[in-house]
């Protein structure tokens, strides 16, 4: 029976690397995978994902109002899809998380989502909240704070390196903009210590 998986972590935990490796494992055995990424996340180019260690792949860019169930059913009708992968799953809408669950439940295709759990203010992203509620299996991917403890939070930095405490929940960026911290050091940074 196919399942909906949610692999979550903070920045720099290797989520995209894990996704690309898992997709490659399917492809190496002659099985087709579909990799999805939010259309506005164009850090590697629209419809493309890449990891910090240099792995990359083409992906299908989706928009907030796209029906992912219908999209995958259509692609599956063209040629069998063995697994669906979603990078930056925090950018899914709640409805899209449910659509992914339907892909596993009704089409029988496993769906593997990788993303952040919380934003820079320590609040759940809508996509992550939905996946935490409905995923069949969840796995925390570990990242490390500068102190050596497990990083569970992320701080957003302004271009001058100062800590950003307010602003839009979604602002795409990488190492130049986000730094992972344990909860203690995140709280220190957010409180100006």
- Helix/strand/pairing category: alpha/beta
- The CATH architecture category equals 3-Layer(aba) Sandwich
The CATH class designation is Alpha Beta
Q: How far is the N terminus from the C terminus? A: 49 Å
Tell me the CATH topology: Rossmann fold
Characterization of the model:
Helix 2 packs parallel to helix 3 (94-107). The protein has a 6-stranded parallel beta sheet, sandwiched between helices. It has one domain: Rossmann fold (3-Layer(aba) Sandwich), CATH 3.40.50.300. The chain starts with a strand and ends with a helix. The mean pLDDT is 88. With 193 residues, the protein is α/β, with parallel strands linked by helices. The protein has 5 helices and 13 strands. Helices cover 29% and strands 26% of the residues.
Keywords:
193 residues; alpha/beta; 6-stranded parallel β-sheet; single chain
